[in-house]
Design goal:
CATH topology: Double Stranded RNA Binding Domain
Radius of gyration: 13 Å
Strand content: over 45%
Distance between the termini: 28 Å
Strand order of the largest sheet: 1-2-3-4
Number of helices: 1
Largest sheet: 4 strands, antiparallel
Number of domains: 1
CATH architecture: 2-Layer Sandwich
CATH superfamily: Integrase, DNA-binding domain
Order of helices and strands: HEEEE
Shape: globular
CATH class: Alpha Beta
Number of strands: 4
Amino acid sequence: MALTEMAIKHLKAKSKLYRVSDGDGLCLEITPAGGKNWRWRYYYQGKEQMLALGKYRFYATG
């Protein structure tokens, strides 16, 4: 299921780091401090890898 902006805004920090999947290896990592980082999980030469894509930032419009 694709993550919507509203769903991401409602994700709360927990005592341990956790990830919420967006599909096809893309996930949002939520840190105990409340940071939200995009990660992409993929395979290279048969080994699982994870690439950091950057922070999730919400930009208010209006």
